[in-house]
Amino acid sequence: MNTIDPSSYRPGDALRTGLPEAFKAQSLNNEGAKNVRLQCRAGNLKAPTPGLAPGYVQANVVILPKEHAFDFLLFCLKNPRPCPLLDVTEEGVVGPAIMAPDSDITTDVPKYRVWQKGEMQELYEVKHIWRNDLVTFLLGCSFTWEEELQQAGLTPRHIEEGCNVPMYRTNIDNHKVGVFGGKLVISMRPYKPADISKVKEITSKYPGAHGGPLFWGENYNDIGIQDLGKPHYGDAVTVRLGEVPVFWACGVTPQSAVAEAGIDFAITHAPGHMLVCDVSEEDLCQP
């Protein structure tokens, strides 16, 4: 059985976005994605988004004042596994041009987190606090490849159990840029050891959705996780006899960085509550 080796993860070794080298968004009927966003906009969807709009990319959201935008951009490029960069807006623009041009980032996420002077609150829309100096970053999300896992008979446990994916804050430092540092956050899906090679094969094709697993094994205490039954974000899931926890880099990592930075103002998605984009999952697949 593989054991977890924290030294195998080395952020800062390269500058990389989450888009494949030959990325070109293909035209497709975006009704599935648009319907999810319109439900959010109308206040009818406030739940986590795993399993919604199959076939479409889901994205983590970070919104910052322009004064912090360059440092955060470099933070993403230096930490590409937890922060695979998919899109960046001009200041004040509410529709990310590459991933969801007709969206409204102030209303089209089911739940937001707003950080002001070190305090955090959760809201269902942020139109009333929008500012013209804000820059939006969209980062890849592991929900993107979960449909392919299901098709392979490897359905993630949180989908089986109808809850949010469990996420854990580790003791592993991110590569710090300016005020942005914090700790790596990872998501977990349990699998039998015999299935891990197939799981790795499928998820590694999507560098823009965190890629393959970083770690798997029972010695998760070595990376700062004390109790799988008490995730820092999301919901606990059942780990059955004969299964081991498998961990991926997670897009909640930037929230750790924002919290540590203590900046005056920031907006993120609430963990598990993503922006559903118009881009096909296939567009993020690395051949």
What is the subunit organization of this protein? Answer: single chain
Give the fraction of residues assigned to helices.
10-25%
Low-confidence stretches: none
Q: What gyration radius follows from the Cα positions, in whole Å?
A: 18 Å
Content-based structural category: alpha+beta
Distance between the termini: 29 Å
Shape: globular
Helices and strands, in N-to-C order?
HEHEEEEHHEEHEEHEE
Approximately what portion of the residues adopt beta-strand conformation? 15-25%
Largest sheet: 7 strands, antiparallel
Let me know the average pLDDT. 91
Number of helices: 6
Number of DSSP E strands:
11
Notes on the structure:
Helices cover 18% and strands 23% of the residues. The two termini are 29 Å apart. The longest helix has 13 residues, at 66-78. A hairpin with a 2-residue loop joins strand 3 and strand 4 (119-123). Strands 1, 2, 3, 4, 5, 10 and 11 form a seven-stranded antiparallel β-sheet that branches. The protein has a four-stranded antiparallel β-sheet with strand order 6-7-9-8, covered by helices on one side. The mean pLDDT is 91. By secondary structure, the chain is of the alpha+beta class.
Note the main attributes of this structure.
alpha+beta; globular; 287 residues; seven-stranded antiparallel β-sheet; 11 strands; 23% strand
